[in-house]
Amino acid sequence: MNLGIIGAGSLGTALGERLAQRGHEIMFGGGASAQDAGARLRARVGSNAETVAFGDATILAVPFAAIGAALADAGPLHGRVLWSCVNAVKPDYTGLAIGFDNSAAEEVARRARGARVVAALPPFASAIAAGQLCYDSDLEPTVFVCGDHPSAKQLVERLVRDIGAHAVDAGPLIAARLVEPAMMLAVSIAYAGVPRDVGLRLLERTSLMPGPPSAQVPA
Ligand SMILES: NC(=O)c1ccc[n+]([C@@H]2O[C@H](COP(=O)([O-])OP(=O)(O)OC[C@H]3O[C@@H](n4cnc5c(N)ncnc54)[C@H](OP(=O)(O)O)[C@@H]3O)[C@@H](O)[C@H]2O)c1
Known about the structure:
The chain has one domain (about 1-205): Rossmann fold. About 35% of the residues lie in helices and about 15% in strands. The chain contains eight helices and eight strands; from the N terminus they run βαβαβαβαβαβαβαβα.
């Protein structure tokens, strides 16, 4: 599919490279870094609005502080699938700028009026760029997918699988309030002292789980 990527930094370029390898057509939106990424990956480059218009979906990979400017330049977003990769990490990486009763995902949705916003924080850009996402035990890292539009979530889950990660439906967009601190924990562990290449994985044991209460038949 055609994919627009707004934000051609570490994450945006790593995603663009992997998704292009999976057969997607990429356009980067932005300034000098988008031009560099476009030249390196032989991808299209345009304004943020042109990038949104090009994409069957748009990936937002800018710092939290830049979401207002990036989305103000993004043109009409109504009905568009917008995959937000944004975590509300403070510029000095010491923690999250917002949380508990708000999330970067919800701030994106407030600014991207009418868009079908899906929040899914990818694994570290360095791991995506390395081309082999599996960690020890051959487990792919989990990407928790949050959103209020089922078809948009399915599209993003497909793209998450295309980069080699394990997509898990984590519920509505508001669940990003829980996912963003979890990813901040990974950032904190990765960069505390000696850098570590870590990822998050949801383990699941389906065989022992009882069904939901309504499905249980009294003896
Ligand atoms: N890096 C990771 O491993 C990772 C993993 C998961 C989630 N994330 C999230 O992904 C986002 C990006 O992270 P990053 O590490 O890739 O940051 P980064 O390397 O600093 O790149 C940010 C990019 O955003 C661009 N940008 C800023 N304002 C823009 C605007 N108004 N329009 C278009 N582009 C704009 C910058 O372009 P210029 O340089 O030209 O200003 C730069 O290319 C963050 O929200 C972060 O929390 C990152």
